[in-house]
Amino acid sequence: MRENYSYPLDEDWNNDEIITVMALYNAVESAYEHGIKREDFLNKYRSFQQVVSMKMEQKRLDHEFETESGYSIYKVFKQCQKIPDNEKVRVQYENKY
Q1: Percentage of residues in the chain with pLDDT exceeding 70?
Q2: Which of 8, 17, 51, 73 could form a cystine bridge with 64, CB 3.0-4.6 A?
Q3: CB-CB contact of 40 with 31 (8 Å)
Q4: How far, in Å, CA of 36 to CA of 88, rounded?
């Protein structure tokens, strides 16, 4: 985990869209740092998908976010698919640096 990193944002997003995307980034951070309820994460992920509907753009943002923070949206999402509904998702941080 890196400290003091910047979040990848799109200058064309309005305030509500920025808040939605930031909520997902914060949920990913929670999944790595102390865990987050599976359904809470998935709700934020679905909202993110409404703001960023193109898969290619989602992948680009995930890559930029992981490069900056060390945290992966995709890895948290995949972990959510492996656990029951009322569980907390917790992802192990892998130091690549």
Answers
A1: 94
A2: 8
A3: no
A4: 5
